[in-house]
Amino acid sequence: MPIAWNQDPPGSEAQIAANAAAVLGDIAADAPARTVPTLAMAQEWHRRLYDGVQVPVHYYAGEFRDSDTSYPELYGYEVQVGPFPGVPSADVPQSLAHFEQQVQAAVAQLDAAIPPGAVPQPSEIGSVLVLCANVHGEWIRIHPFANGNGRTARLWANWAALRYELPPFVTIKPRPGNPYGAAAMQSMTGNHQAMVVAFVQMLSAHLR
Questions:
Q1: 32-44: per-residue pLDDT in tens?
Q2: Is 13-207 assigned to CATH 1.10.3290.10?
Q3: What is the pLDDT of residue 173?
Q4: What does the DSSP assignment read for 127-188?
């Protein structure tokens, strides 16, 4: 049975927060280049999030569930958020391949509509927020890592926002009571509409 990784080690919050800030800074710096989004990009974010943090198995940082026989502890590793299970480990590789394909197709369309450096028009901001919610929500639904999926999903959302000249409005650790929590549970079912609404509110609050 795989070694469980359900919580960050005590005292690691400050290190993870510092790591997240550094990753987000690099995402912002790279945004104008509009590089093609890949799974490998998210794997590197995850490794960097847990740099200097003790994890139960060293390759839990950056490797996906049921993705490679070189990482036996991730084979058959199942996850659950509240009452909702993540994608079964055997289906994670296929789900991630579909995720990558869909994200690349979505940004190809938005890249054509919103040129690099252009501030999105009000009518376009909604499309950007839908992208933010979908990449975030699908990452949550798949739950590819043993732990740290929420943090990585929020990096995905900010990556999408920064690509289209919006601020990184999704905090790495949203405050309790934020509509984000309930919306994330809805995303576990594949319904990301509540997350779109939550992101509209979060962006408005950030801009205020």
A1: 999 999 999 999 9
A2: yes
A3: 76
A4: HHHHHHHHHHHHHHHH--SSS-HHHHHHHHHHHHHHHTT----S-SSPPTT-THHHHHHHHT
